[in-house]
């Protein structure tokens, strides 16, 4: 397996580790860097025109988010995703999403609710502009505001990792979603969740979040059903 060459956009020297982190994260989430691609500190430092220290910092952050994996021999890879693990991923996402949404309905403050609504407005605006990269980021931001409203940092940290993996899967089958279902009505996916949280209806909030996960699962499985024989791979 060869080391993937990364395109350094502009001068990274002025930005250091944060710029490198954001550039690598964007390429991982949009699948420009494929799952399983090997990463190397020395090569990345040369490509970005920096020392190894900011590259190491960027990779450490990506490892903490679960987007990069370090093997026992110190080799670093874009975290692979085995299709056989999809049911386990969905189970983890479903349970965690239900938990954070339920907690948000119970524990949210008015300030939390305002941030949730504001994040959803930004997401809906991105839908109207048709920018999928922005939509993906803002959808994650919306769900993270819900998690923070639950005021349990353990759930919030783990949930963020699951959402990052979900972004990669969304990018994998985004074209399928648009061509088969379009984006009309996608802004309504969040409405029932927000309403239940606003009304402090924990059971309804949990159920709405579960249905949200089921919709994601069913879309992805339908995509795999139609494309599995066409050589689709997510490794």
TrEMBL record:
Domain named HTH gntR-type: residues: 14-81
Keyword DNA-binding included in the entry's annotation? yes
Transmembrane parts of this sequence: none
The coiled-coil segments of this chain are none
Output the PROSITE patterns linked to this UniProt entry.
Answer: HTH_GNTR
What UniProt keywords apply to this chain's record, in alphabetical order? DNA-binding, Transcription, Transcription regulation
Taken from the record, one Pfam family name reads FCD
Annotated Gene3D superfamilies: GntR ligand-binding domain-like, Winged helix-like DNA-binding domain superfamily/Winged helix DNA-binding domain
What taxonomic lineage is listed for the species of origin?
A: Bacteria, Pseudomonadati, Pseudomonadota, Gammaproteobacteria, Pseudomonadales
Q: Which domain of life is it from?
A: Bacteria
| One Gene Ontology MF term | DNA binding
| Protein's recorded name | GntR family transcriptional regulator
């Amino acid at each position: 397996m060869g080391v993937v060459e990364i395109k350094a956009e502009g001068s990274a020297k002025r930005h250091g580790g944060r710029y490198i982190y954001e550039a690598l994260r964007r390429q991982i989430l949009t699948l420009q860097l494929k799952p399983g691609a090997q990463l190397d500190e020395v090569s990345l430092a040369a490509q970005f025109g920096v020392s190894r220290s900011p590259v190491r910092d960027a990779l450490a952050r990506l490892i903490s988010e679960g987007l990069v994996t370090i093997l026992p021999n110190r080799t670093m890879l874009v975290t692979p995703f085995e299709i056989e693990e999809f049911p386990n991923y969905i189970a983890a996402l479903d349970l965690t999403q239900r938990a954070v949404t339920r907690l948000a309905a119970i524990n949210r403050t008015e300030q939390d609710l305002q941030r949730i609504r504001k994040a959803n407005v930004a997401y809906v605006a991105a839908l109207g502009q048709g920018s999928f990269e922005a939509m993906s980021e803002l959808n994650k931001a919306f769900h993270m505001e819900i998690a923070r409203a639950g005021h349990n940092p353990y759930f919030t940290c783990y949930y963020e990792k699951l959402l990052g993996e979900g972004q990669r899967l969304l990018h994998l089958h985004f074209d399928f979603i648009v061509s088969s279902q379009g984006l009309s009505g996608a802004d309504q996916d969040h409405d029932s969740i927000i309403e239940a949280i606003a009304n402090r209806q924990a059971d309804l909030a949990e159920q709405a979040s579960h249905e949200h996960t089921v919709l994601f699962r069913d879309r992805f499985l339908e995509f795999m059903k139609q494309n599995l024989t066409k050589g689709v791979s997510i490794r």
